[in-house]
Amino acid sequence: MAGHSKWANIQHRKGRQDEKRGKVWTRVIREIIVAARLGGGDLDVNPRLRLAIEKAKAANMPADTIKRNIDKATGNLEGVHYEEVRYEGYGIGGAAIIIDCMTDNRVRTVAEVRHIFSKYGGNLGTEGSVAFQFKHCGQLIFAPGTSEDKVMEVALEAGADDVITHDDGSIEVLTPPLEFEAIKAALTNVGLTPEVAEVTMRAENTVELTGDDAARQQKLLDMLEDLDDAQDVFHNAELN
Asked: What is the pTM of this model?
């Protein structure tokens, strides 16, 4: 990503997420249910569930709500069956977009995704049409002014894949997905707290959009993120 706007894009994304706190519980509950169904309710052997519970606690979800949804997923309580489904497509200027959904009705969800792409200037693609442009990895991003030497020393010692310093001074640490928790803990234990910490689909290359194109792309992304079934939306557009 072009360094001059890396931090600005991150702050914008965080602002958008803060505006949508009302949907956070719904999304986290779905993630807890699917993680527990796939990997069981034992946190010691289910890293995906550990991450989901961490998100739930960050959103101030009560412990009994967390437990109840784990019980639903593992068969101790009756619950809705959600399945994961990924959609891929193109936005403004050919920007690549991935939408990860959890749904109890695939027909409804794909119709809604297709409608948004069509209405807001994008195109829904086929499976695999853009995913190759992204890397599944852990990502930790530190604010400009953080000690580059300290981040690099601790992260690489803990097993990070790469440490990237951007032109704007922000520092990005990339990790293998399964090592994300351990590397994050190593950094926070020495006082290095990331602004962004997630397992994500990171774009390998970006498409820079400005002016009206950037505004149109943002509108498309906003509408996709507002879908009830959408869990995450990843894209390779850099909006200026």
From this structure: 0.79
